[in-house]
Every structure is written in structure tokens, then in C-alpha cells.
Amino acid sequence: MAKDINPPRGMRDFLPAEKAKRESVLGVIKGVYGSFGFQEVETPALENLDRLTSGQGGDNEKLAYRVMKRGAELDSALESLESADVLADLGLRFDLTVPLTRFYATNRSSLPTVFKAIQMGPVWRAERPQKGRYRQFVQCDIDIIGDDSVLAEIELLNASLAALDALGLSKAVIRVNHRELLLSLLDSFGVKEADRSSALITLDKLDKIEVTGVVSELRERLGDGVADKANAWLVAADKTVPAVLAPLFSAVDEKRLRFDPTLVRGMGYYTGTIFEIEMLGEGSAIGGGGRYDGMVGKWLGTDVPAVGISIGFERVVELVSAATPTNGVLLVLEDSSIDCIKAAVGFQKELIAQGKSVRLELKPKKLNILLDSMLEAGFSQFALVSADTSELNFKAIGN
Hints:
Blueprint: H1 16-35, E1 39-40, E2 46-48, H2 49-52, E3 66-68, H3 71-79, E4 88-92, H4 97-107, E5 115-124, E6 136-145, H5 150-166, E7 172-178, H6 179-189, H7 196-203, H8 206-222, H9 224-235, H10 246-251, E8 257-259, E9 273-279, E10 285-291, H11 297-300, E11 306-312, H12 313-319, E12 328-333, H13 338-353, E13 357-362, H14 367-376, E14 379-385, E15 395-396
Parallel strand pairs: 1-5, 7-8, 12-13, 12-14
Antiparallel strand pairs: 2-4, 3-4, 5-6, 6-11, 7-9, 9-10, 10-11, 14-15
């Protein structure tokens, strides 16, 4: 019986063309963010488990991969085992926001007063794999820490839209709301403070279970009074941009913004403006974020304003058309003699100095099969090289 040689469920291998596309998309996003003055940082894949499960990450904390203690520490934990929790002291990061707040607290004295960060990298969540949902995936975040003004939100939104435009995703729009508006709304429904979280979770399901489903769930959880008021509001929700969000609509292309009074965003740590990016006609979010002014204070003991946004990289990669590199050239050696190899290597050095990507291949019996595979890999031209070749004669691959 053959062994299973696939990667773990919810994790993937990437072939060269796929990897090249992913790196290209990452490069575009990073370049645009850098042009807006954001600076890239890096945090470890692992964080102390008590930080990952401190209440900062909402429901995602339940999905954290735990890493067992090692050596003598593990032996000691096994001897005094009271619960499985004592066996683990580290966890794989499930997002980039919690690690960033820890990073800021650790390095605050070395950072600008207003810190504008780019962070890109893999995260891991132990959830049930399904189409479009993986256990390991890449996040692309920008955050501004130390600025409590609306300028921070404006910069995030403008930079995100510019990055998406650079990828050809100009149909992207951003829905915005504000947590204070949501809390005021819940008060008008008669929701008690202790039930706010439950009510928000239900409202956040609006795009999945629609108005009737939301009202039914609110009725079951919080009673007829709350459900009836919510139903009346959902049917005739006012879409006029409120004063608290008006500055965004005046400083960001208002054609790309949508005020959505029903937008919740699931994370409980949001304290102010929240936003979600969607592609018109696609029906699913490709990013989101919001202001989280209370998170950094968890580590420092004093609150520091913070706001961030994340592009859903895996979804964006699916939407972006693969761009075939045009500077890749193939040098096909007529034979394996040392004189032919030296000639080919000399030409390769010259072309690399000109900024080309140059691949050497010995001439096979069926040249067309080699050329077809190289075209798929992004090589658009080829030339034959022999020991006495003095000048390369390039031909287009595929013609």
C-alpha cells in the first residue's frame, strides 16, 4: 500500500509558477506600502502561549497550534500532569496583529513615535480545511501605532486601495462602520451590556443567514423585544454617512467607500472604525481591519492608539492574473563538451549583467517539449549555443 505523500491537510505545496506568482503579488503590495512610508518588520512564527491566549485574539485563540515543551521541561510537566495545557508553552501565531503589539511593546524605545509597520508572512490556524480556507496561509498587514487621529485610517485605506489597483483589482471597495455606532445601536434595541458580544456575533452573520435568520436568532437568544426592534432597523437601516466617519469619505475616494451600518467584524478587540474590503461582483471579503486602541496596553500597562488593515492574500492571488515574466531567456547547449559549456556560461554571465534571467539546458532529442515547459515557467526566448558560437540568435518560444 502506497504511503500518503501529500502535505498535511489544509497546507499546500507550490509549484515554481505558483510560487513566482505569489512572490510577484507580494512584491507589488510591499512596494506600494513602502511608497506610503510604511516600514517592514518581522516577528517570530512562535509566540509564548500565554500571550497568544490572553484574550487579544478572540475566537482565533481556540485555533492556535500549541507547541509542546522540550527536554527536561517536558519530562517535568509529564510527571506533574494536571491538564494538557501544562505540556505546551509556545504556539504558532494565528494572525500578525497580536505578535505586532508584542513587538511594539518590546521595541518601543527604538521605534518612531508614530510607527507605520508592514508585516507579511504565514500564520497557522487549526481549523477544518475547506475551499478557500487553509490551516497555513499568508497575511499582508499594515498598521499604524501611536496615532489616534483619523489620518491613520485615511492612510491605511488609501494605501490598501493603491495596492489593489496596482494588482489590477480596481473594482475593490471598502465598507466602513464604527464600533461606537454599533454599541449605540445595541442600546437602542435594548441589549444589555452582558449580551453585547452575543448580539454582535449574530449581526455579523447577516450576509450568511440574511435578515430573517438574524432576527430569528436574536429572538431565540435575547427575546422578542430586541428581535422586533432589530428587524425594524434592518429593514430600513439608514445608509447616510454619520459624522464620525465623514472625514474618511472626504479624504478617500468616496466612490471606493461604502458606509455599512450592519458591518461588525468579528474580533472583539476593535474599539473604533472598522472596515472590510470586497470585490464588486465576487461576493466575498478580501481583507479588513479596524482600530484596536486597547491591545498594546495589555503588554505596556498604558494604552497606545493603534489601527491596522490586512489584505487577504490567498483570495487576492486567486483574483490576480498570472503575469508571465518577459526577461527570461533559455540557452540551449548543442552538446556537453567543455568548450560548449564555457561558451554558454560566458553568454549567461553577460545576459545576467543585463538584468536577464538565464537558464542553461542541454539540447534534448525533442526540443519542442523543452521549449513548451520553459514557456510555462516564464522563459520567452531561446538561443542555441555551440562551442564556436560568437553571437546569440534569439527566437521567441511558442512561435
